[in-house]
Amino acid sequence: MPYLTDDEKRILQGEEGYVPQLCMQYLVEVCEVSGAERLIDLDGTGDFHTPTTSMSPFYEFSFEELKKLVDSGAHFKIPTFANKAPFFAVPPVDGWEDCNLCSYGDPEKMHCNPEFHREAMRDEWFELYRKMGMMTTHSCASYLTASYLPTMGQHCAWNESSAVPYCNANLGARTNIDGSFATCFLGKAAYYDMHITENRYATVEVRSERMISSDLEWDVFGFAVGEEVGVKVPVLTGTAKPNMTQIMKLNSGMNTSGAVRMYHIPGSTPEAHTLEEALGGRKPQRVAIIGEAELKRAYETLNFHTSDDVDMVYLGCPHLNIVDLMLLARKLEGKKCRVPLWIMSTPWLFDVAKKLGYLKIFKDAGASLMTGTCLAAMGGVPGGVRNLAVDSAKQSYYITGCYPDDDNRLQVCYGSQDDCIDAALTGKWRGEWR
Ligand code: F3S
Fold first, then answer.
1. How far is the CA of 139 from the centre of ligand 1 (A)?
2. Cα–Cα nearest to 257, from 104, 392, 410, 406
3. Three-class secondary structure of residue 141 per DSSP
4. Which atom of ligand 1 is the closest one to the Cα of 141?
5. Which DSSP string corresponds to 265-277?
6. What is the CB < 6 Å shell around ligand 1?
7. Whose CA is nearest to atom 7 of ligand 1?
8. pLDDT along the chain (434 residues), means of 10
Protein backbone atom coordinates (compact mmCIF):
# COMPACT_ATOMS: atom_id res chain seq x y z
CA MET A 1 0.00 0.00 0.00
CA PRO A 2 1.52 3.39 -1.00
CA TYR A 3 1.72 6.37 1.33
CA LEU A 4 -1.48 8.46 0.94
CA THR A 5 -2.17 12.00 2.15
CA ASP A 6 -5.24 12.60 4.32
CA ASP A 7 -7.14 13.95 1.29
CA GLU A 8 -6.22 10.87 -0.77
CA LYS A 9 -7.32 8.60 2.08
CA ARG A 10 -10.68 10.40 2.24
CA ILE A 11 -11.18 9.85 -1.49
CA LEU A 12 -10.23 6.17 -1.09
CA GLN A 13 -12.78 5.79 1.69
CA GLY A 14 -15.50 7.07 -0.64
CA GLU A 15 -16.10 10.39 1.10
CA GLU A 16 -16.15 12.22 -2.23
CA GLY A 17 -18.38 9.71 -4.01
CA TYR A 18 -18.27 6.49 -5.97
CA VAL A 19 -16.31 7.51 -9.10
CA PRO A 20 -13.53 9.38 -7.23
CA GLN A 21 -13.23 6.35 -4.94
CA LEU A 22 -12.97 3.98 -7.92
CA CYS A 23 -10.31 6.22 -9.51
CA MET A 24 -8.30 6.27 -6.28
CA GLN A 25 -8.58 2.48 -5.93
CA TYR A 26 -7.23 2.18 -9.46
CA LEU A 27 -4.27 4.50 -8.75
CA VAL A 28 -3.46 2.63 -5.55
CA GLU A 29 -3.40 -0.61 -7.52
CA VAL A 30 -1.10 0.96 -10.15
CA CYS A 31 1.23 1.97 -7.27
CA GLU A 32 1.20 -1.57 -5.92
CA VAL A 33 1.94 -3.14 -9.28
CA SER A 34 4.66 -0.62 -10.19
CA GLY A 35 6.23 -0.38 -6.76
CA ALA A 36 5.46 3.35 -6.51
CA GLU A 37 5.63 4.52 -2.90
CA ARG A 38 3.25 7.43 -3.38
CA LEU A 39 1.21 9.48 -5.84
CA ILE A 40 2.41 12.64 -7.53
CA ASP A 41 0.22 15.72 -8.13
CA LEU A 42 0.15 16.41 -11.88
CA ASP A 43 0.81 19.96 -13.06
CA GLY A 44 1.04 19.25 -16.81
CA THR A 45 -1.52 17.81 -19.23
CA GLY A 46 -3.20 14.48 -19.87
CA ASP A 47 -5.04 12.44 -22.45
CA PHE A 48 -6.89 9.17 -22.60
CA HIS A 49 -8.69 6.99 -25.06
CA THR A 50 -12.43 7.67 -25.15
CA PRO A 51 -15.16 6.75 -24.60
CA THR A 52 -13.85 4.19 -22.14
CA THR A 53 -11.97 5.49 -19.13
CA SER A 54 -8.72 3.69 -20.11
CA MET A 55 -8.58 2.12 -16.67
CA SER A 56 -8.51 -1.64 -16.13
CA PRO A 57 -11.91 -3.31 -16.82
CA PHE A 58 -12.33 -3.74 -13.06
CA TYR A 59 -12.43 0.02 -12.63
CA GLU A 60 -14.70 1.00 -15.54
CA PHE A 61 -17.96 2.75 -14.65
CA SER A 62 -21.22 3.29 -16.52
CA PHE A 63 -22.48 6.15 -18.63
CA GLU A 64 -25.08 6.85 -15.91
CA GLU A 65 -22.37 7.20 -13.27
CA LEU A 66 -20.46 9.57 -15.53
CA LYS A 67 -23.60 11.64 -16.08
CA LYS A 68 -24.20 11.85 -12.33
CA LEU A 69 -20.65 13.05 -11.84
CA VAL A 70 -20.96 15.69 -14.55
CA ASP A 71 -24.31 16.89 -13.14
CA SER A 72 -22.55 17.44 -9.83
CA GLY A 73 -20.23 19.94 -11.61
CA ALA A 74 -17.07 17.78 -11.69
CA HIS A 75 -14.12 18.73 -13.95
CA PHE A 76 -10.82 17.21 -14.97
CA LYS A 77 -8.08 18.57 -12.70
CA ILE A 78 -5.55 19.00 -15.53
CA PRO A 79 -5.97 20.12 -19.18
CA THR A 80 -7.17 16.90 -20.81
CA PHE A 81 -7.18 15.88 -24.46
CA ALA A 82 -8.57 12.85 -26.31
CA ASN A 83 -6.53 10.11 -27.92
CA LYS A 84 -7.79 8.63 -31.23
CA ALA A 85 -11.46 8.60 -32.24
CA PRO A 86 -13.81 6.36 -30.19
CA PHE A 87 -12.22 3.17 -29.05
CA PHE A 88 -14.77 0.57 -30.12
CA ALA A 89 -14.66 1.47 -33.85
CA VAL A 90 -11.89 4.11 -34.19
CA PRO A 91 -13.67 5.71 -37.17
CA PRO A 92 -12.24 8.55 -39.23
CA VAL A 93 -13.50 11.83 -37.74
CA ASP A 94 -13.26 13.63 -41.10
CA GLY A 95 -13.17 12.20 -44.61
CA TRP A 96 -15.13 9.10 -43.48
CA GLU A 97 -17.25 9.36 -46.66
CA ASP A 98 -14.24 8.02 -48.62
CA CYS A 99 -13.49 5.24 -46.14
CA ASN A 100 -14.76 2.11 -47.93
CA LEU A 101 -13.56 -0.08 -45.09
CA CYS A 102 -15.61 -2.11 -42.65
CA SER A 103 -14.91 -1.86 -38.96
CA TYR A 104 -12.88 -4.87 -37.73
CA GLY A 105 -13.98 -7.03 -40.65
CA ASP A 106 -17.75 -6.60 -40.01
CA PRO A 107 -19.43 -5.91 -43.40
CA GLU A 108 -22.46 -4.43 -41.59
CA LYS A 109 -20.25 -1.66 -40.24
CA MET A 110 -18.86 0.31 -43.15
CA HIS A 111 -17.10 3.49 -42.07
CA CYS A 112 -18.55 5.33 -45.09
CA ASN A 113 -22.11 4.57 -43.95
CA PRO A 114 -23.48 7.80 -42.37
CA GLU A 115 -25.52 5.86 -39.82
CA PHE A 116 -22.58 3.77 -38.71
CA HIS A 117 -20.42 6.89 -38.55
CA ARG A 118 -22.96 8.67 -36.33
CA GLU A 119 -23.22 5.64 -34.05
CA ALA A 120 -19.44 5.16 -33.95
CA MET A 121 -18.84 8.75 -32.88
CA ARG A 122 -21.35 8.34 -29.97
CA ASP A 123 -21.69 12.05 -29.20
CA GLU A 124 -23.34 11.66 -25.79
CA TRP A 125 -20.08 10.45 -24.18
CA PHE A 126 -18.10 13.32 -25.65
CA GLU A 127 -20.68 15.86 -24.56
CA LEU A 128 -20.11 14.74 -20.98
CA TYR A 129 -16.34 14.64 -21.29
CA ARG A 130 -16.40 18.10 -22.91
CA LYS A 131 -18.49 19.43 -20.01
CA MET A 132 -15.74 18.18 -17.73
CA GLY A 133 -13.21 20.16 -19.79
CA MET A 134 -11.88 17.55 -22.22
CA MET A 135 -10.68 18.98 -25.53
CA THR A 136 -11.57 16.24 -27.98
CA THR A 137 -8.50 16.33 -30.21
CA HIS A 138 -9.01 12.68 -31.21
CA SER A 139 -5.49 11.94 -32.28
CA CYS A 140 -2.60 9.64 -31.38
CA ALA A 141 -0.55 12.81 -31.90
CA SER A 142 -2.85 15.25 -30.09
CA TYR A 143 0.23 17.30 -29.16
CA LEU A 144 0.30 18.46 -32.81
CA THR A 145 -2.90 20.45 -32.46
CA ALA A 146 -3.36 20.79 -28.71
CA SER A 147 -1.87 24.33 -28.85
CA TYR A 148 -1.08 23.92 -25.15
CA LEU A 149 1.90 21.83 -24.16
CA PRO A 150 3.45 21.02 -20.80
CA THR A 151 6.70 22.75 -19.97
CA MET A 152 10.03 21.37 -18.74
CA GLY A 153 9.70 19.25 -15.60
CA GLN A 154 5.89 19.25 -15.43
CA HIS A 155 4.28 15.93 -14.53
CA CYS A 156 1.77 14.62 -17.09
CA ALA A 157 -0.37 11.58 -17.92
CA TRP A 158 -0.02 10.83 -21.63
CA ASN A 159 -0.49 7.84 -23.94
CA GLU A 160 0.74 6.64 -27.31
CA SER A 161 3.95 5.59 -28.98
CA SER A 162 5.08 8.88 -30.51
CA ALA A 163 3.55 11.05 -27.77
CA VAL A 164 5.10 9.61 -24.60
CA PRO A 165 8.72 10.11 -25.75
CA TYR A 166 7.69 13.48 -27.21
CA CYS A 167 6.59 14.53 -23.73
CA ASN A 168 9.67 13.14 -21.96
CA ALA A 169 12.54 13.46 -24.40
CA ASN A 170 11.51 16.37 -26.59
CA LEU A 171 9.64 18.63 -24.17
CA GLY A 172 11.44 17.64 -20.98
CA ALA A 173 8.09 17.11 -19.23
CA ARG A 174 7.47 13.81 -17.42
CA THR A 175 5.06 10.99 -18.11
CA ASN A 176 4.67 7.23 -18.09
CA ILE A 177 1.98 5.61 -20.22
CA ASP A 178 -0.39 6.98 -17.61
CA GLY A 179 -3.26 8.63 -19.46
CA SER A 180 -6.61 7.54 -18.02
CA PHE A 181 -9.80 9.01 -16.61
CA ALA A 182 -8.39 8.49 -13.11
CA THR A 183 -5.13 10.39 -13.68
CA CYS A 184 -6.81 13.27 -15.53
CA PHE A 185 -9.79 13.52 -13.17
CA LEU A 186 -7.87 13.30 -9.89
CA GLY A 187 -4.79 15.09 -11.29
CA LYS A 188 -2.56 12.42 -9.75
CA ALA A 189 -0.42 9.54 -11.00
CA ALA A 190 1.70 6.78 -9.50
CA TYR A 191 5.16 8.22 -8.80
CA TYR A 192 7.52 5.84 -10.59
CA ASP A 193 9.69 5.38 -13.71
CA MET A 194 9.80 8.56 -15.84
CA HIS A 195 8.41 10.82 -13.09
CA ILE A 196 11.66 10.31 -11.17
CA THR A 197 14.83 12.18 -12.24
CA GLU A 198 17.17 9.26 -11.57
CA ASN A 199 15.32 7.00 -14.05
CA ARG A 200 15.58 9.49 -16.88
CA TYR A 201 19.34 9.20 -17.47
CA ALA A 202 20.51 7.01 -20.34
CA THR A 203 21.96 3.62 -19.52
CA VAL A 204 22.76 2.52 -23.10
CA GLU A 205 24.61 4.48 -25.75
CA VAL A 206 23.37 3.69 -29.26
CA ARG A 207 25.94 4.83 -31.80
CA SER A 208 24.93 5.16 -35.43
CA GLU A 209 27.56 4.51 -38.08
CA ARG A 210 25.47 6.26 -40.73
CA MET A 211 24.62 9.97 -40.33
CA ILE A 212 20.85 9.55 -39.85
CA SER A 213 19.22 12.50 -41.58
CA SER A 214 16.36 11.62 -44.01
CA ASP A 215 12.80 10.87 -42.83
CA LEU A 216 13.13 7.23 -43.91
CA GLU A 217 16.47 6.85 -42.11
CA TRP A 218 14.96 8.18 -38.88
CA ASP A 219 12.01 5.79 -39.21
CA VAL A 220 14.20 2.72 -39.83
CA PHE A 221 16.75 3.83 -37.21
CA GLY A 222 13.94 4.22 -34.64
CA PHE A 223 12.79 0.65 -35.31
CA ALA A 224 16.37 -0.65 -35.04
CA VAL A 225 16.95 1.26 -31.76
CA GLY A 226 13.74 -0.11 -30.20
CA GLU A 227 14.84 -3.65 -31.08
CA GLU A 228 18.23 -2.99 -29.56
CA VAL A 229 17.26 -1.36 -26.24
CA GLY A 230 13.75 -2.66 -25.41
CA VAL A 231 12.68 -0.68 -22.32
CA LYS A 232 16.03 0.97 -21.54
CA VAL A 233 16.68 4.72 -21.87
CA PRO A 234 19.16 5.23 -24.75
CA VAL A 235 21.38 8.14 -25.70
CA LEU A 236 21.65 8.33 -29.48
CA THR A 237 24.91 9.48 -31.03
CA GLY A 238 26.17 9.82 -34.60
CA THR A 239 22.91 11.24 -35.94
CA ALA A 240 21.91 14.64 -37.29
CA LYS A 241 19.36 16.70 -35.30
CA PRO A 242 15.85 15.49 -36.17
CA ASN A 243 13.12 17.88 -37.29
CA MET A 244 9.52 17.54 -36.03
CA THR A 245 8.44 14.96 -38.63
CA GLN A 246 11.57 12.94 -37.97
CA ILE A 247 11.03 13.07 -34.19
CA MET A 248 7.55 11.59 -34.72
CA LYS A 249 9.02 8.84 -36.87
CA LEU A 250 11.85 8.08 -34.46
CA ASN A 251 9.51 8.01 -31.46
CA SER A 252 6.87 5.78 -33.03
CA GLY A 253 9.51 3.47 -34.56
CA MET A 254 11.27 2.95 -31.20
CA ASN A 255 7.95 2.18 -29.52
CA THR A 256 6.95 -0.35 -32.16
CA SER A 257 9.91 -2.68 -31.76
CA GLY A 258 10.62 -1.60 -28.17
CA ALA A 259 9.09 0.51 -25.40
CA VAL A 260 11.26 3.61 -25.28
CA ARG A 261 9.58 6.23 -23.09
CA MET A 262 12.62 8.46 -22.92
CA TYR A 263 15.85 9.03 -24.85
CA HIS A 264 18.51 11.68 -25.35
CA ILE A 265 20.26 13.15 -28.38
CA PRO A 266 23.08 15.33 -27.03
CA GLY A 267 22.68 18.88 -28.26
CA SER A 268 19.11 18.28 -29.45
CA THR A 269 16.90 17.02 -26.62
CA PRO A 270 16.57 19.38 -23.64
CA GLU A 271 17.85 17.21 -20.80
CA ALA A 272 21.19 16.43 -22.43
CA HIS A 273 23.51 19.07 -23.79
CA THR A 274 26.35 16.54 -23.77
CA LEU A 275 26.82 12.78 -23.76
CA GLU A 276 28.01 12.97 -20.13
CA GLU A 277 24.86 14.84 -19.10
CA ALA A 278 22.66 12.26 -20.86
CA LEU A 279 24.38 9.49 -18.89
CA GLY A 280 24.16 11.38 -15.58
CA GLY A 281 27.95 11.39 -15.32
CA ARG A 282 28.16 7.56 -15.35
CA LYS A 283 29.52 5.13 -17.90
CA PRO A 284 26.94 3.46 -20.17
CA GLN A 285 26.10 -0.12 -19.19
CA ARG A 286 26.53 -0.96 -22.86
CA VAL A 287 27.41 0.64 -26.20
CA ALA A 288 25.38 -0.67 -29.14
CA ILE A 289 26.45 0.05 -32.70
CA ILE A 290 23.80 0.43 -35.40
CA GLY A 291 25.55 -0.03 -38.73
CA GLU A 292 24.45 -0.65 -42.30
CA ALA A 293 23.64 -4.30 -41.61
CA GLU A 294 21.28 -3.46 -38.72
CA LEU A 295 19.52 -0.72 -40.71
CA LYS A 296 19.09 -2.98 -43.74
CA ARG A 297 17.73 -5.78 -41.58
CA ALA A 298 15.19 -3.43 -40.00
CA TYR A 299 14.18 -2.12 -43.44
CA GLU A 300 13.74 -5.66 -44.77
CA THR A 301 11.61 -6.64 -41.78
CA LEU A 302 9.23 -3.84 -42.67
CA ASN A 303 9.35 -4.14 -46.48
CA PHE A 304 8.11 -7.57 -47.54
CA HIS A 305 6.24 -8.18 -50.77
CA THR A 306 6.45 -10.54 -53.71
CA SER A 307 4.74 -8.28 -56.22
CA ASP A 308 5.57 -4.69 -57.20
CA ASP A 309 1.94 -4.02 -58.14
CA VAL A 310 0.60 -1.72 -55.42
CA ASP A 311 -3.16 -1.74 -54.62
CA MET A 312 -3.27 1.14 -52.17
CA VAL A 313 -1.02 3.73 -50.52
CA TYR A 314 -1.39 4.94 -46.93
CA LEU A 315 0.44 7.93 -45.41
CA GLY A 316 0.01 9.40 -41.96
CA CYS A 317 1.33 7.22 -39.16
CA PRO A 318 1.71 8.99 -36.81
CA HIS A 319 -0.83 11.57 -37.97
CA LEU A 320 0.67 14.12 -40.36
CA ASN A 321 1.53 17.63 -39.18
CA ILE A 322 0.71 20.76 -41.20
CA VAL A 323 4.13 20.96 -42.86
CA ASP A 324 3.79 17.33 -43.98
CA LEU A 325 0.40 18.21 -45.51
CA MET A 326 1.81 21.29 -47.25
CA LEU A 327 4.71 19.32 -48.76
CA LEU A 328 2.39 16.54 -49.82
CA ALA A 329 0.02 19.01 -51.50
CA ARG A 330 2.99 20.49 -53.34
CA LYS A 331 4.01 17.04 -54.59
CA LEU A 332 0.47 16.05 -55.66
CA GLU A 333 -0.67 19.29 -57.27
CA GLY A 334 -1.74 18.70 -60.86
CA LYS A 335 -1.14 14.91 -60.63
CA LYS A 336 -3.57 11.96 -60.73
CA CYS A 337 -3.35 8.85 -58.54
CA ARG A 338 -3.74 5.47 -60.22
CA VAL A 339 -4.45 3.66 -56.96
CA PRO A 340 -6.21 4.91 -53.79
CA LEU A 341 -4.05 7.18 -51.65
CA TRP A 342 -5.26 7.78 -48.08
CA ILE A 343 -3.69 10.59 -46.10
CA MET A 344 -4.27 10.67 -42.33
CA SER A 345 -3.94 13.68 -40.05
CA THR A 346 -5.40 15.09 -36.84
CA PRO A 347 -9.02 16.34 -36.82
CA TRP A 348 -8.17 19.93 -35.96
CA LEU A 349 -5.92 20.19 -39.01
CA PHE A 350 -8.66 19.13 -41.44
CA ASP A 351 -10.20 22.62 -41.54
CA VAL A 352 -6.77 24.22 -41.71
CA ALA A 353 -5.88 22.02 -44.70
CA LYS A 354 -9.18 23.00 -46.29
CA LYS A 355 -8.57 26.74 -45.78
CA LEU A 356 -5.05 26.47 -47.15
CA GLY A 357 -6.30 24.74 -50.32
CA TYR A 358 -4.59 21.38 -49.66
CA LEU A 359 -7.86 19.45 -49.40
CA LYS A 360 -8.86 20.51 -52.90
CA ILE A 361 -5.43 19.58 -54.27
CA PHE A 362 -5.73 16.13 -52.68
CA LYS A 363 -9.25 15.65 -54.03
CA ASP A 364 -8.26 16.76 -57.53
CA ALA A 365 -5.40 14.26 -57.42
CA GLY A 366 -7.83 11.49 -56.38
CA ALA A 367 -6.38 11.24 -52.85
CA SER A 368 -8.47 11.17 -49.65
CA LEU A 369 -7.68 13.21 -46.56
CA MET A 370 -9.01 11.63 -43.35
CA THR A 371 -8.41 12.32 -39.68
CA GLY A 372 -8.40 10.79 -36.24
CA THR A 373 -7.62 7.11 -36.92
CA CYS A 374 -5.50 4.82 -39.09
CA LEU A 375 -5.76 1.54 -40.98
CA ALA A 376 -4.24 -0.51 -38.16
CA ALA A 377 -6.57 1.07 -35.59
CA MET A 378 -9.58 0.34 -37.84
CA GLY A 379 -8.48 -3.26 -38.08
CA GLY A 380 -7.44 -3.76 -41.71
CA VAL A 381 -7.47 -2.58 -45.30
CA PRO A 382 -10.37 -2.27 -47.78
CA GLY A 383 -11.47 -5.47 -49.54
CA GLY A 384 -9.27 -6.50 -52.46
CA VAL A 385 -6.11 -4.78 -51.18
CA ARG A 386 -3.30 -7.36 -51.09
CA ASN A 387 -0.30 -5.05 -51.44
CA LEU A 388 -0.19 -1.84 -49.42
CA ALA A 389 2.50 0.86 -49.63
CA VAL A 390 3.36 2.81 -46.46
CA ASP A 391 6.13 5.12 -45.24
CA SER A 392 5.83 4.21 -41.57
CA ALA A 393 7.56 1.45 -39.63
CA LYS A 394 4.76 1.43 -37.09
CA GLN A 395 1.99 1.10 -39.67
CA SER A 396 3.88 -1.62 -41.57
CA TYR A 397 4.31 -3.60 -38.37
CA TYR A 398 0.76 -3.31 -37.02
CA ILE A 399 -1.26 -3.54 -40.23
CA THR A 400 0.05 -7.03 -40.97
CA GLY A 401 -0.83 -8.00 -37.41
CA CYS A 402 -4.47 -7.44 -38.40
CA TYR A 403 -4.25 -10.63 -40.49
CA PRO A 404 -2.55 -13.16 -38.20
CA ASP A 405 -4.18 -16.32 -39.55
CA ASP A 406 -4.24 -15.44 -43.22
CA ASP A 407 -1.69 -17.51 -45.19
CA ASN A 408 -2.17 -15.25 -48.15
CA ARG A 409 -1.64 -12.31 -45.85
CA LEU A 410 -1.32 -8.65 -46.66
CA GLN A 411 2.02 -7.62 -48.15
CA VAL A 412 3.65 -4.27 -47.49
CA CYS A 413 5.87 -2.08 -49.63
CA TYR A 414 7.72 0.11 -47.15
CA GLY A 415 9.82 3.10 -48.08
CA SER A 416 10.09 6.87 -48.20
CA GLN A 417 7.17 9.22 -48.71
CA ASP A 418 8.46 9.91 -52.24
CA ASP A 419 8.51 6.15 -52.96
CA CYS A 420 4.90 5.99 -51.76
CA ILE A 421 3.78 8.96 -53.87
CA ASP A 422 5.45 7.41 -56.90
CA ALA A 423 3.53 4.18 -56.17
CA ALA A 424 0.24 6.09 -55.86
CA LEU A 425 0.82 7.78 -59.22
CA THR A 426 2.07 4.71 -61.12
CA GLY A 427 0.64 1.71 -59.25
CA LYS A 428 4.20 0.29 -59.12
CA TRP A 429 6.70 -0.04 -56.28
CA ARG A 430 10.19 1.20 -57.08
CA GLY A 431 11.44 1.94 -53.58
CA GLU A 432 14.55 0.39 -52.09
CA TRP A 433 16.95 0.89 -49.21
CA ARG A 434 19.81 3.10 -50.35
FE1 F3S B 1 -1.29 6.67 -34.72
FE2 F3S B 1 -2.25 4.52 -35.90
FE3 F3S B 1 0.22 5.14 -36.18
S4 F3S B 1 -2.82 5.24 -33.94
S5 F3S B 1 0.85 6.22 -34.38
S6 F3S B 1 -1.48 6.39 -36.87
S7 F3S B 1 -0.57 3.07 -35.82
1. 9
2. 392
3. coil
4. 1
5. -TTTSTT-SSHHH
6. 84, 140, 161-162, 252, 317-319, 374, 376-377, 394-395, 398
7. 395
8. 97 97 97 98 95 85 95 98 88 97 91 94 88 96 96 97 97 97 98 98 98 98 98 98 98 98 98 98 98 98 96 98 98 98 97 98 98 94 95 96 75 97 98 94
